[in-house]
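Second attempt. The first submission of Beta-carotene 15, 15-dioxygenase 2, like had a stray character pasted in from the spreadsheet, which I only caught after the job came back as garbage. Lesson logged: always re-copy from the clean sequence file. Corrected sequence (144 aa) follows.
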Amino acid sequence: TGCYRQRTLTSAQKNPKHFTDVHGLPCIEKIVTSVEDIPEPISTNIIGMIPNWINGNFLRNGPGKFEMGNHRFNHWFDGMALLHQFKISNGEVTYRSRFLSSDSYQTNKEQNRIVMSEFGTLTMPDPCKNFFQRFVSRFELPSK
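This time the job returned cleanly.
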């Protein structure tokens, strides 16, 4: 889309291995697998009993999406943030989740590729921008 030009990829780049294979970490493959968000609360199955006096929300966050389009993140720290909510009320628990709507997530989603470099994932700069435009794009002008 736009001015982004696809560069010629080698066969290894077209069919990248999952980084758990590359780094010899098959034991963590399940935690670095992309999941869909669940915006509407769903009921959970509870084994045992939750006391009625425990009420509230338990929030967690972590990576939930490890690829954008045909591009994969190179490190498990780089996955797009997924927020989890467990709502506990009257001995029942519901669950829902959604991706953090960060600038990085929105830009990656709009362009269907990894646009911004992350901890372990370097991206190619937009070939349509010169050095100065790429430098300035890292900063925000102060509001008046």
